[in-house]
């Protein structure tokens, strides 16, 4: 329970911010926090609190997997790469051929989620394929 | 009489000439094959077979460019009428993983490698569901990486070997 005490503020914030399917479990000295935040802002807020309790996330005692509930089929997503284009691939994997690119900050549509990592998207230009979810943020 | 003889001689000559020409215009398949094989020395993995001047190329190359190069090489070889290109393009296989371990780790490893490749200066290792991060990174980059790694549902993300700048 010690970890739940250490990260009490984080767990409380997740509960009070309307995070659904919230699961908090301690296993082998690591606190696993899973859930679905109602918006990207809530997700950011939770990560900020986590970073406050464990500066630079170096303790290695939390694995937090918060998805954003607004990232559903048909949703608009912003390409949040650092500055480069986002590759759109034929299939879910970096070994798949590139079928198109989405520019940095371009808004694309989410067709479906193949996994937590690979989302099927379509650009306004008509390019359709799989892109890495890490670089896609739902438009609020 | 003399005229007839002359006529016959020229006929025989013409016939002989025609025979020679037809002979020359039809090099033996074996000769063509030898020439094509010699020309294809720059394309290892490609073999050629010749029938009636038609070259059939088979084998495996690493890229479409290599396939085209082999086809063009065969096309310009003397005696070749046409080329049937049956070469398959197979990109070289990715290097084998360092150590074959449990499936869960393999899947995790692939996903981790996909993510970490965008973070220069950082190395990740996966063992028994634990991701170990070493190297150095700026704080905001590391946060992004940590978010992505946590989404893979590992047992733990061990960053004790990471230097945050």
TrEMBL record, chain A:
Question: What is the official name of this protein in its record?
Answer: SH3 domain-containing protein
Q: Which PROSITE patterns match?
A: SH3B
| A Pfam family matched in the record | SH3_3
Residues in domain SH3b?
74-140
Top-level taxon of origin: Bacteria
From TrEMBL, chain B:
- The lineage's top-level taxon is Bacteria
Q: Which PANTHER family match?
A: BON DOMAIN-CONTAINING PROTEIN
Q: Which Gene3D superfamilies match?
A: 3.40.1520.20
Origin organism of this chain? Chitinophaga polysaccharea
Name assigned to this protein: Hyperosmotically inducible protein
Signal peptide range: none
**Every BON domain range:** 24-91
Q: What is the lineage of its organism?
A: Bacteria, Pseudomonadati, Bacteroidota, Chitinophagia, Chitinophagales
One Pfam family of this chain: BON
**InterPro entries associated with the record:** BON_dom, Lipoprotein_DolP
């Amino acid at each position: 329970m010690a970890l739940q005490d250490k990260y009490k503020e984080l767990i409380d914030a997740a509960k009070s911010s309307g995070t659904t399917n919230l699961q908090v479990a301690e296993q082998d000295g690591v606190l696993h926090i899973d859930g679905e935040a109602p918006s990207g802002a809530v997700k950011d807020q939770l990560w900020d609190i986590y970073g406050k309790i464990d500066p630079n996330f170096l303790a290695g005692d939390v694995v937090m997997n918060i998805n954003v509930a607004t990232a559903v089929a048909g949703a608009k997503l912003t390409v949040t790469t650092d500055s480069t284009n986002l590759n759109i691939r034929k299939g879910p994997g970096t070994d798949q051929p590139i079928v198109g690119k989405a520019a940095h900050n371009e808004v694309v549509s989410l067709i479906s989620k193949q996994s937590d990592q690979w989302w099927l998207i379509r650009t306004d230009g008509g390019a359709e394929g799989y892109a890495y979810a890490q670089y896609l943020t739902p438009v609020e | 009489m003399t005229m007839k003889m002359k006529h016959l001689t020229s006929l025989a000559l013409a016939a002989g000439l025609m025979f020679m020409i037809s002979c020359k215009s039809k090099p033996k398949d074996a000769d063509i094959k030898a020439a094509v094989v010699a020309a294809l020395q720059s394309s290892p993995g490609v073999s050629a077979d010749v029938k009636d001047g038609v070259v059939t190329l088979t084998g495996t190359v690493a890229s479409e460019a290599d396939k085209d190069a082999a086809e063009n090489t065969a096309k310009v070889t003397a005696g070749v009428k046409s080329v049937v290109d049956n070469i398959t393009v197979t990109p070289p296989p990715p290097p084998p993983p360092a150590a074959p371990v449990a499936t869960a780790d393999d899947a995790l490893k692939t996903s981790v490698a996909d993510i970490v490749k965008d973070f220069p200066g950082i190395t990740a290792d996966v063992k028994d569901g634990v991701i170990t991060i070493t190297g150095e990174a700026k704080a905001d980059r590391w946060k992004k990486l940590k978010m992505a790694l946590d989404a893979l549902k590992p047992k733990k993300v061990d960053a004790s070997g990471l230097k945050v700048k």
